[in-house]
Design brief:
Structural class: mainly alpha
Radius of gyration: 23 Å
Shape: globular
Number of helices: 18
Strand content: under 5%
């Protein structure tokens, strides 16, 4: 049994933190605040602040705060950036609490079962919504997208793809017996992948394919399980799309709509409310037209990127400041001469480039290169499998989280920042464990 005393509370909060978004960001923020205060009050060793990686992140947070003060003339948008260092403290807190609680891993192992049950409920709730049209709580399908317990917020896919690598990391952290539970894990991860597909989140689906492919290549204990899960997902997609099963047209949204948006509807002609597809012959005879019509994901995304890059060209060194894209759109009443306005550019790399300039983008590039270098370095070393898998897994998780070639959420959004630096906290802990071997 787990003893729920004050000494165990920090570790409990640390382990459950990524999953609290199910009940709301306020609870997540409370967990973050508690863990940060715990670290500041009880950490007596300042060695954490001596690590080069931490120093680099602290410099980055100071840079973010500085350009926010200089560039953003709006208190609400500026304030969160000034205190951006709190996310670096969160990463340190996660590392500290996990290190402190290493001797409690066996005692806390049952927590993993609880997390499995939470996700299984979400999976079955989502499947029920897909088949019936409403979930267990009466939430209906919105725009062919399954939302499950999130109701009107279409964030199911985003939540699942961000928590998937964390859950897998916990499997290795708790030393869950993978070989003895192959059937259960195959069943569980098949449902996980199917639910991401049903969510209708195209970015989430794309990132899921990339993540699973990398895990199959690098994480040997999960190779068969994830391979079988992918095959079950493929079978599910084929069967539901061929027989037109379910209350939402997920395949049309994920595949057909994406193709039409990327090609700017070149192959779809609307005439008197009827849709007819161009012939293959016309496709062959219109290569130039095809190339000129290609969009980066969609017309809207294309417009966001054009505006963000235009802002970068005018502010190359320091950018327009964190959340400066939104600030600029507010100033011009969301009516730009170039591109399309929104709350953010919808791409991590472009947002960092436009809002933090070349200096901020260099931090981004260095982080990517550092992660890639260590990923291949330690993958080729003969190390204890559990520690090695935890490190490789969290390295892949951050790389996918920061992936530059697909649309993304607001990099400076609180929820995304919390997940980003939670992953960094797991990374520091896993990295330090490898160093001890």
């Amino acid at each position: 049994m787990i003893s729920f005393n004050s000494r165990n509370l920090p570790l409990l909060l640390c382990l459950f933190l990524p999953f609290t978004y199910i009940v709301g960001i306020l609870i997540t923020e409370i967990f973050v605040l508690f863990l940060t205060l715990y670290f500041l009050f009880f950490n007596k060793d300042f060695k954490y602040f001596k690590y080069k990686q931490i120093i680099a992140l602290l410099i980055f947070s100071f840079y973010i705060a500085s350009i926010a003060v200089i560039k953003i003339d709006h208190n609400d948008l500026r304030l969160s950036s000034i205190f951006y260092f709190r996310f670096i403290l969160l990463a340190l807190s996660i590392n500290f609490v996990l290190t402190e609680g290493e001797n409690k891993v066996v005692e806390f192992k049952k927590i993993l079962i609880g997390i499995f049950l939470i996700f299984l409920f979400i999976f079955f709730d989502s499947l029920y919504q897909f088949v019936i049209g409403k979930n267990f709580f009466g939430n209906e399908i919105i725009n062919d997208r399954i939302s499950s317990i999130f109701g009107n917020e279409l964030i199911l896919g985003g939540f699942l793809i961000k928590t998937l690598p964390i859950l897998i990391w916990l499997i290795f952290y708790f030393k869950f017996e993978i070989k003895k539970n192959i059937f259960f894990l195959t069943f569980f991860f098949s449902l996980f992948l199917i639910t991401i597909y049903l969510s209708g989140g195209r970015t989430s689906f794309g990132l899921m394919i990339i993540l699973v492919a990398l895990l199959i290549f690098f994480i040997k204990p999960l190779k068969k399980i994830l391979s079988y899960s992918l095959m079950i997902l493929l079978a599910f997609i084929c069967l539901t799309s061929f027989f037109n099963f379910g209350k939402s047209a997920i395949f049309d949204r994920t595949v057909k709509k994406t193709f039409n948006q990327v090609t700017n509807n070149l192959f779809v002609k609307e005439d008197e409310n009827k849709v007819s597809y161009y012939t293959l012959e016309k496709f062959k005879n219109s290569k130039k037209e095809f190339k000129s019509n290609i969009m980066i994901f969609s017309k809207d995304h294309n417009g966001h990127y054009e505006l963000a890059l235009d802002l970068f060209y005018k502010n190359k060194i320091f950018g327009v400041g964190p959340k400066g894209f939104r600030f600029h759109c507010r100033k011009i009443d969301y009516d730009p001469e170039i591109g399309i306005c929104s709350t953010h550019p919808h791409n991590t790399a472009i947002q960092i480039l436009s809002e933090t300039g070349i200096i901020g983008f260099l931090f981004y590039i260095v982080v990517i290169l550092f992660l890639l270098f260590n990923l291949f370095k330690y993958n080729n070393k003969n190390l204890e499998m559990n520690h090695k898998c935890k490190f490789l897994l969290i390295s892949i998780a951050i790389l996918v989280h920061l992936f530059p070639l697909l649309p993304s959420g607001n990099f400076f959004n609180n929820w995304i920042s919390i997940i980003t630096f939670y992953l960094f906290g797991l990374y520091f802990y896993s990295y330090n464990n490898l160093k001890k071997i």
